């Protein structure tokens, strides 16, 4: 593409922001005995390097599962092993069995941060660049602006480079999957998504839209001919990639079961800690965790999740389209986040990625959502000592989006993709023209509430009787926002029709 | 909302860029800081607590006040804000005090006062875009009134600055603080100027002389030439350089461009060019020059770079080598990616955009210049990634500094010569600048 140098500059900006954020503290820094996610990753390097594969997921004297036992699928373990080999080369003390527990040093921090940067640079960033370059019907400048905004999304930067995680690997693979599947490279796309799934099991949030989209494509091609062939090939690809990743763990049934037990800890309850989903917010009024038995909780959560995502998925099977696919990814992931079992606040990133992908279609709403998603993680970020980078990256992201997309000029029915919905409502309620105005007011309300809560959390101490007051308020407010977005995105999906798309092309 | 949108849209890219750069500066708050941090904390303490008569005599800390009085007043003003962040930093005896609040205050003071720079850039950009006219200034008509009023302004400002100290009979003390000739010819990190090349030549000749038995080994001083706090040192083969010698060299280097400005005026751009040449000449031939001083030449040249292809070419060489020469100042590992990323960012953007701007004219660089600029990459890899793992690191730790300094000195001297040639051979411009 022309203006490749501008894209290079955008990537360099993204890398600079990432590295400067990584100079700050990480989760559990200087907090024995458990420390945090940073220590967990270091510990996994220690375990995978020193112990044979058979012992990675099992409790033993050398591998105490209570102390950050492996609870991600095998690809994470292999990645940790790779990092461990590099660590051994630089300083074996970092991964020495038992003695390296709680190891903290400036050099080690540099090493760990570098591993995150390299993984990001190899997987996530190229996917974003390629995605933006492949967008259709957009000028080169807009593509570059889009890449800038996606790369500046604060949530992912703060969690990966601040708190310390490797979300960019799984999200990057998922994005490669979206790319492949959207541009008819179905086999490669599903392979990439399987890799994502085998890196973090939370990618299951995205699995239904992938399944429905590919199924819809098969139906479209005709189940008696090409469609069936495609279905078979996809099944083989998925099965093959799973077998390849899990090969060492398929040797005996107990291994496989143990890994599954570590990945899906159903004993742990409806939710843990504070998270901006419906169950946690509902428990402010009614402690469902204590009232209902475990099995009922699982069933209720299952029902709500699937009922909320069913319409969009069915529509995707019947009318598969790349645009519908992206929006369904958003809707599905959001449904899972809001209603599912054992959701962690970081899982909002699984919703943020698809929203980043639709940034150029509905810039105003996407920017709003991405700001709320970062805000919902505020208690976590404050606990990690990431206040300054959070404020700075959020402001930078907002300025970038506001400038690149002129978001405040795009709040009419057409830009919000609510035209067909509004027309349908106007059949019964002719005066229904105020939707954009309501959305504007809601936006202001939301931003003011978030700003106030942030200010309060930073400056004030919570009252003694309610020590978690601010965290709960943050979760509650975020949850309300997310419910609104769930409704909004589902409206777009359900009212998105071919005629509307054709009309846009004609215009 | 639409009105807000339109206003936001036309508040435009400049505001977004200025805010973006400011936010990037905020992200750099937890990064490395040099001893200059303690220097400025000390000056805050001195100006806050002591009467003016003590400011240039105070020597509790080794970092004595060595900027002119307006800077001291600036620190005094800052100190009144500092006391709300952490009053402990204002205690003179709190040497090397650096709480997190102190760090925050210092960083924010830099970021905040940069607003002046941002505003200046904004005004300059308006000039370049042609929205502002140059004014019908007559450059070759001598006006007694004009000269007197200029002289009066300069006198008043200087009087305001030095007046109180003149009254206290402290001018010699101030002079000795501002111009410490007891420091060596070169700063500890060897600014990439003429004297760096001179030093290297002297060293090379002395080594050759020793090998060919032309020199007596017992007569050669062992003192290293790199320390900045050492007394004047002797060169071995070439004649030693005194402060007076550097002054004469600088004057000789500056005079041709000044004469050109007097007798062959080229309008405001000619003035700017002369300014840049003076800054560069002082950098190349001055006494105890710090590498930071290259910025005094780079920044004004950036204004000219968007108007003429030749200036763009000189600017790109100067800015790339100038920025690269600053790398040794940031020697810590966490900052290594930052300096490389920022350098790449700026270099790629400036070269590509200027190339696009002047695509219809001849290429910006000839093969020699391209080769030279590309050579910076391998040089960086050698100095920062390969050298630390070799056996020479312990025996000759200064080699990366030396190599960087010499390599950049070549580029900077080349830019200086090229700019001089363009000024001396450029056509004189008429009375008013046509637009």
UniProtKB/TrEMBL annotation, chain A:
Residue spans crossing the bilayer: 110-132, 144-161, 173-197, 230-249, 298-318, 348-371, 386-408, 438-458, 470-495
Main location class: endoplasmic reticulum
GO terms assigned for molecular function: dolichyl pyrophosphate Man9GlcNAc2 alpha-1,3-glucosyltransferase activity
Compartment(s) where it occurs, according to its Swiss-Prot or TrEMBL record: Endoplasmic reticulum membrane
Reaction it catalyzes: an alpha-D-Man-(1->2)-alpha-D-Man-(1->2)-alpha-D-Man-(1->3)-[alpha-D-Man-(1->2)-alpha-D-Man-(1->3)-[alpha-D-Man-(1->2)-alpha-D-Man-(1->6)]-alpha-D-Man-(1->6)]-beta-D-Man-(1->4)-beta-D-GlcNAc-(1->4)-alpha-D-GlcNAc-diphospho-di-trans,poly-cis-dolichol + a di-trans,poly-cis-dolichyl beta-D-glucosyl phosphate = an alpha-D-Glc-(1->3)-alpha-D-Man-(1->2)-alpha-D-Man-(1->2)-alpha-D-Man-(1->3)-[alpha-D-Man-(1->2)-alpha-D-Man-(1->3)-[alpha-D-Man-(1->2)-alpha-D-Man-(1->6)]-alpha-D-Man-(1->6)]-beta-D-Man-(1->4)-beta-D-GlcNAc-(1->4)-alpha-D-GlcNAc-diphospho-di-trans,poly-cis-dolichol + a di-trans,poly-cis-dolichyl phosphate + H(+)
UniProt keywords, alphabetically: Endoplasmic reticulum, Glycosyltransferase, Membrane, Signal, Transferase, Transmembrane, Transmembrane helix
EC top class, as a word: transferase
Pfam families: Alg6_Alg8 (PF03155)
GO cellular component annotations of the record: endoplasmic reticulum membrane
Protein's job: Dolichyl pyrophosphate Man9GlcNAc2 alpha-1,3-glucosyltransferase that operates in the biosynthetic pathway of dolichol-linked oligosaccharides, the glycan precursors employed in protein asparagine (N)-glycosylation. The assembly of dolichol-linked oligosaccharides begins on the cytosolic side of the endoplasmic reticulum membrane and finishes in its lumen. The sequential addition of sugars to dolichol pyrophosphate produces dolichol-linked oligosaccharides containing fourteen sugars, including two GlcNAcs, nine mannoses and three glucoses.
Protein family (similarity comment): Belongs to the ALG6/ALG8 glucosyltransferase family.
Protein's name in the database: Alpha-1,3-glucosyltransferase
Provenance organism: Oryctolagus cuniculus
